[in-house]
Amino acid sequence: MQKPIFLLLLAFLLVSGVGAQEILTLDKAFQIAETSSPDLQQSLLNLERFQKNLEAQRAALKSRFSLDVAPVNFSRNRRFDNRVSQWYTNENFQTNALFRVEQPILLTDGTISLTNEFGWQSSNSDVTEIESQVFYNNLYLNFNQPLFTYNRQKLELKELELNYENANLGYVMQRLNMEKNVTQYFYNVYMSQMNLNIAKEELNNTQKSYEIIKNKVDAGLAAMEELYQAELNLATAKSSLQDREVAFENAKDQLKLYLGMDLYTDFSILADVSMNPVPIDMEKAIENGLASRMELRQREIDIESSQFELIRTRSLNEFRGDVNLRLGISGDNKNLNQIFDAPTNSPSVGVSFSIPLFDWGEKKARIAAQEAAIESQKLNYTDEQNQIIIGIRQAYRNLQNQLNQIQIAEQSQTNAQLTYEINLERYENGDLTGMDLNLYQTQLSERKIAYSQALINYKIELLNLKIQSLYDFQKNEPIIPADLYLEQKN
To answer: Known InterPro entries for this protein (predicted)?
Structure first.
């Protein structure tokens, strides 16, 4: 449908007068946006935040080692001894270190820990006037296990995993959205550049028409009113050119801002808007969209997150228990190598229960509210499915309509070009006024712009269908969301 010679002429017009400017293609714009786009950088930072939170939680499930050291602890206290009904003064000097290893148990939500306290203590009082100096060591193995409640460690880890997956989906969606926005901004610049070139062409044609009528007026072959009209047409063409130059620079600034480019970098757009119709299978597009769209997985994550919140809600005022077991061995002696000559075993067992009695219906009401929230999330999932189907159908219909619009716009441009050439000859022969010729010139410019816009609209709508269905009909292959994840990209 598009002739090769026209493409060559179009490319020449686009780069003519650019000089040493940088030539920006759509593929190059994508490359710049992937590394510099502020929107994509924000999405990457959000993804990194959730990734680090997940890494931190996984690290927290490993053994934790800690060492508390108290090199100096001195006290002097006045105390009363009830046994002998006598006040006495006690001085105590102590130095110790506490080493702890703590291991969370993900399977049961319990915790097992090993602690060892080693120190030296010196103590005396004015009652006995005997100073006690002793080394001591306390070694304990502790186990704590909640009963009759949900596994908080598993729930928190699963939530962070879902948050990270959701952030990854958001990044993928942002990349696809970036492709759409870059394309839109890119073709906005292209159209502004096209309008500028057409305005230059209009000015050139108007200048020639002005010179023709001026020569005729000078030779007495045309009325002075024709010259006045030609001067007005020329001034209008110059004003239109200035307006198009301003619009072109503004469009370039918007593209630079979105791509994250240096605002002082100058460039010129080189775009291929040739017409290559792509066969579309709407049923395949809908099927692939429903199977692959990240928004559906995000709605599933919302449902799962709501169910987690329901678990927490049900734990309000819950009946629960805790079991604490401890096995320990303690020893002390004034000689360091004799600490465990007469050790003391220190076992302990503790079982406790928390029994709710009456909460005035608080728990029941909160559970009902959360169940309603879950149902709302399920409705959102169904609505998202319907929106995907509708969006793909609309994109398909728009594509078919754009094909018709392109044919009409191409024929209109051809007719406008022939009409202008015929009336230009009439104008040169004196059979047409300058005002009438200007109308034909304006009509031709509008038809050229309309044809270019129809071609661009088709490309943008084709890209929209690609994003809606996650299927590239140009390459005839599905877009796999996992291939767009950060890990895969890097």
So the answer is: MdtP/NodT-like, OMP_efflux
Q: How many CB atoms lie within 10 A of CB 471?
A: 25
For residue 117, what are the domain limits? 65-105+110-148+322-355
CA 388 to chain centre: 20
DSSP codes, 302-321:
HHHHHHHHHHHHHTTT--EE
- Prediction pTM value: 0.76
């759409």: which residue's tokens? 180
Decide: 105 and 111 in contact? Cβ < 8 Å. Answer: yes
Looking up tokens 């066969």 gives 279
* 240 in the same domain as 260: yes
Task: Give the count of domains, the chain.
Answer: 2
Q: Are 316 and 366 in contact (CB under 8 A)?
A: yes
Q: Which residues of 451-464 are buried (b: 16+ CB within 10 A; e: fewer)?
A: bbbbbbbbbbbbbb
Q: What pLDDT digit, counting tens, does each position of 214-244 carry?
A: 888 887 777 788 888 888 888 988 999 999 9
CB burial of 189-201 (b: ≥16 within 10 Å; e: otherwise) equals bbbbbbbbbbbbb
- How far apart, in whole angstroms, are the C-alpha atoms of residue 173 and residue 391? 16
User: Taking Cα atoms as reference points, which of 237, 229, 204, 259 lies closest to residue 40?
Assistant: 259
Query: Do residues 44 and 74 both lie within one domain?
Result: no
